[in-house]
Amino acid sequence: MNADVIRSDFPITDDLIYLDSAATSLMPRQVAEAISAYDLRYRANIGRSVHRLSVVATQRYLDAHDRIASFIGGESGTTVITKNTTEAIGIVASGIPWEKGDRVVTTALEHHSNLLPWLRLRNRGVNVDIVMPEADGTIDPAAFEAAVTDETRLVAITHASNVLGALLPVRKIADICHEHGAELLVDGAQSVPHIPIDVKDLGCDYLCFSGHKMLGPSGTGVLWMQEMTPEPLIIGGGSVEAASLTGYTLAGDYRRYEGGTPPIGGTIGLGEAVKYLTSLGMEDISRHEEWITRRLLDGLTGIDGVIVHGPDTPGDRIGVVSFTVPGMHPHDVAHILDEASDIMVRSGDHCCKPLMELLELPQGTVRASTYLYTTGEEIDLLLRSLEEIVRMVE
Fold first, then answer.
1. pLDDT tens per residue, range 332-375
2. pTM here?
3. Active site residues
4. CATH for the 30-279 domain, from 3.30.300.30, 3.20.20.20, 3.40.640.10, 1.20.1070.10
5. Which alpha helices (DSSP H) does 96-140 contain, by range?
6. Which residues have a Cβ under 8 Å from the Cβ of 139 and sit 6 or more positions away?
């Protein structure tokens, strides 16, 4: 995979170094053009009208829907378009008929979106147990063996930490869950864009991820489920087979969860993003990012005055690397990188306040996150810039 060739599809890379893909990835021309084509050439609602524009829009939407499902090996389950990972998780959290005494197991690694919905269930008498990670973000499967019991109804975990980049052993955790009759929900927001994913290999019951982190538009997300167990979060137009003044019958497929007009142009754009990623090959993308991450980790650990957080082995993580410069607020480091070197990184708590408290990092970290368009030269410039910043502190 030649990142220099790929970058011609991402005009923003001509002007700056973008290392904030874990928050939102850049979008290639092909995806923007697919969205524009819908808006300018065949904009219409789907599944409603019989005129030609609606027929074309409906077919393009369904094609994108199928392509997205296929991308994660999810043909055998149900794939639902949501507006983001947060909504996808919320559908499951709100839709399961919880009973007092049920147990949920999650971890302290989680983004707020995969933590707060479960904590709120405590108000309904659901017990929530939290597994603590090691300092580098890794968790031994034995911790889940100890936490998951026959009373556990659901385990909710991130596949890859959005702070430390650590990958969790999802398959092993899935096996533990199913031994006790529990379901497994995986937050794949950080993994699906970067490594090959097949839900059959993961063994999960639910997989949630966002379009805007995988070259797609904002306002798009996905919930894949093995069984249509949760009740829909909302119902309305398009989500029923029949309705009368005495009742209704929900649609027997994904439509029951997509009440109202979905993000049609966005879903078509996400389908194009999936097509783009597939054409490059997720295995090649993963190898490229592993190489880039190794270069970044080696460089950061070689700078006196920079502390790296998370696993130090690329194979145990994705290209999300958090670090701190003692004596400087992470926001100051990020601001200097932007102003002095045109380098975009994220700083702060990354929507993981409990994890930051656990790591004793009240101000958070600086986070550099890579993607398929990141080059070795960009990493080298980041490292040189950080060396200058460290000298400022000294």
1. 999 999 999 999 999 999 999 999 999 999 999 999 999 999 99
2. 0.96
3. 351
4. 3.40.640.10
5. 116-120
6. 107, 109, 131, 133, 166, 168, 169
